[in-house]
Specification:
Helix content: 40-55%
Number of domains: 2
CATH class of the largest domain: Alpha Beta
Structural class: alpha/beta
Distance between the termini: 70 Å
CATH architecture of the largest domain: 3-Layer(aba) Sandwich
Number of strands: 5
Strand content: 5-15%
Order of helices and strands: EHEHEHEHEHHHHHHH
CATH topology of the largest domain: Rossmann fold
C-alpha cells in the first residue's frame, strides 16, 4: 500500500464502511486500522502511507499531542485530523500547532467537509473555516516547545473529565509517574494542593469549558435527575436572565 491512505479510527465494526466511503471520495489504497501507539508506528513503517487520516477523538483530548509525537518519528508523513462529531475547536488548533497539515470538521456542513476532504486527497493543506477564523490572530502556542509544559493542557482537560491517572497516561503514551509529575506541575502553577482544587480552579479561570467535557465516558444518562437539581438549574437560568449572576446583597 506504499503511497496510499491510512485511516485511524476506533469504529472497528465500521471499518469496511469507512474504507468504502473514502474510496468513493477518491482516496487510493485505503487501509483502516484501530492500532495505536507502537502498533500504529509499526504499521506506518510497514505500509508507508502517503497520507494518514486520524479521527480527532482517537486519543481523546490527547490526539493533537500524540500526532505531534508521531511526526517526530515520521517527519515527512502528511497527517490530517478528521472530526466527524463536535470536537472542541480550541483543541483543534493544537493539531496545526503540533505539525498536522489539515483539519476537517463534518459539523461545519457536509459541503465544506467534502471540499476539505478533496483538498486533503489532493495533497493540499486545509483548515476548516471556523478553525481558520479562530487562528487568524494567533501566531502560535507560546509554550509548545517547552518540554515541561507541552502536555499540561491535555492532562488538565482529562483531569476535569474525571480520568484516572492511568487513563491519562494511556492516552498520552506516558507513565503514571510522568502524569503525576505533570499534575504536580499544574498544582504548582495554579497554587493548589489537590486534584479537586485544580478542577475547581480550572472552572474558576475558564480554562476548561463544557465542550471539553465531552471526553467524559459516553454513558447514556437514563437515570432520573433529582428535583433539587432541576430546581438549581431553573434558578440558575432565571438568575442569568435577570442578570443576577454574581450579585451580592
Amino acid at each position: 500500500m506504499a503511497g496510499g491512505t491510512l485511516f485511524v479510527s476506533r469504529a472497528v465494526p465500521l471499518h469496511s464502511d469507512i474504507q468504502h466511503s473514502l474510496e468513493g471520495m477518491g482516496f487510493k489504497d485505503v487501509t483502516v486500522t484501530a492500532k495505536e501507539k507502537d502498533g500504529l508506528n509499526m504499521l506506518i513503517e510497514e505500509v508507508k502511507p502517503k497520507l494518514l487520516l486520524i479521527s480527532a477523538k482517537f486519543y481523546e483530548a490527547g490526539t493533537p499531542y500524540m500526532m505531534g509525537e508521531l511526526l517526530k518519528v515520521h517527519p515527512k508523513l502528511n497527517i490530517a485530523a478528521v472530526a466527524t462529531d463536535n470536537y472542541p475547536l480550541t483543541l483543534a488548533a493544537y493539531f496545526i500547532w503540533r505539525g498536522v497539515k489539515s483539519y476537517v470538521n463534518k459539523w461545519e456542513g457536509i459541503e465544506e467537509f467534502h471540499k476539505g476532504m478533496q483538498a486533503i486527497r489532493d495533497g493540499k493543506p486545509y483548515k476548516s473555516p471556523m478553525l481558520k477564523t479562530l487562528m487568524e490572530d494567533m501566531r502560535g502556542y507560546p509554550d509548545l516547545k517547552k518540554h515541561t509544559t507541552k502536555r499540561l493542557m491535555e492532562c488538565l482537560i482529562m483531569l476535569c473529565c474525571g480520568f484516572k491517572t492511568e487513563r491519562i497516561g494511556s492516552n498520552l503514551h506516558i507513565s503514571k509517574k510522568t502524569v503525576e509529575n505533570h499534575l504536580k506541575c499544574l498544582y504548582e502553577i495554579f497554587h493548589v494542593g489537590s486534584r479537586e482544587e485544580m478542577v475547581a480552579m480550572a472552572w474558576r479561570l475558564d480554562i476548561v469549558t463544557k465542550e471539553d467535557l465531552q471526553f467524559y465516558d459516553n454513558r447514556v444518562i437514563d437515570f432520573p435527575i433529582p428535583e433539587w437539581v432541576q430546581a438549581k438549574r431553573l434558578m440558575d437560568r432565571k438568575a442569568k436572565e435577570l442578570n443576577l449572576i454574581g450579585f451580592t446583597a
